[in-house]
Design brief:
Blueprint (H helix, E strand, L loop, with lengths): L2 H18 L3 H17 L1 H8 L5 H12 L5 H12 L6 H15 L2 E8 L5 H15 L2 E8 L7 E5 L2 E4 L2 H14 L10
Parallel strand pairs: 1-2
Antiparallel strand pairs: 1-3, 3-4
Helix pairs in contact: 1-6, 2-3, 2-6, 4-5
Length: 188
């Protein structure tokens, strides 16, 4: 089974159990704690994800670091991943879990790129407009990309809406380069 499919299967199982236990939000927050800690401490990430580190060392480390911060439910999930030798897929599982949890809450993430930062009113208006388009509550993930020159690029699910000046200029350049020039007559 491919890594992405595997991560999705584990995330689906975790999400279903979290819904049953009414812990959907808490599990997402705690998985975020695990992700941030592993990203912040590269030695921890190396220990967790390296195939030559014995499972008992990984499990002992997880218990020491996270026992006070995580529900037993999430802690046991991490330990199961170590036992099944799937802990290296944890970042992908967290991403998949977040998407599944958002879907269960009728939410969707939209990646927004603009040439200039949006103010809060612009963000709210964009979220409302995208919410009407999708029928879901939209969570904006904004970033600034000065190469866009002006406009906005929105990626929501599998859809891409590119309203940037950079794309329009590229389209114009392509159109002009494909246009055959004819002899222009000049009269005096």
């Amino acid at each position: 089974m491919l890594g992405g499919q595997l991560a999705t299967k584990y995330a689906q199982a975790l999400c279903e159990l979290a819904k049953e236990k009414d812990l959907l939000d808490e599990v997402e927050q705690e998985l975020g704690i695990v992700r941030k800690t592993a990203e912040q401490y590269k030695d921890l990430a190396t220990l967790l994800y390296h195939y030559q580190v014995p499972a008992e060392v990984k499990k002992d480390t997880i218990m020491k670091i996270f026992k006070a911060d995580l529900h037993d439910f999430v802690l046991n999930f991490l330990l199961l991943l170590v036992d099944k030798r799937r802990i290296n897929a944890l970042p992908d599982m967290i991403d998949a879990y977040t998407q599944l949890a958002n879907a269960a809450r009728n939410m969707i993430e939209a990646e927004i790129k603009t040439a200039m930062p949006l103010n809060s009113q612009q963000e709210t208006a964009l979220a409302v407009k995208l919410g009407k388009m999708t029928g879901k509550t939209v969570i904006l993930k904004t970033s600034v990309d000065k190469s866009l020159i002006s406009g906005v690029v929105v990626k929501i699910g599998d859809s891409l809406i590119d309203g940037s000046i950079a794309r329009r200029l590229k389209s114009l350049e392509t159109a002009l380069s494909n246009t055959q020039l004819t002899k222009i007559g000049v009269t005096s």
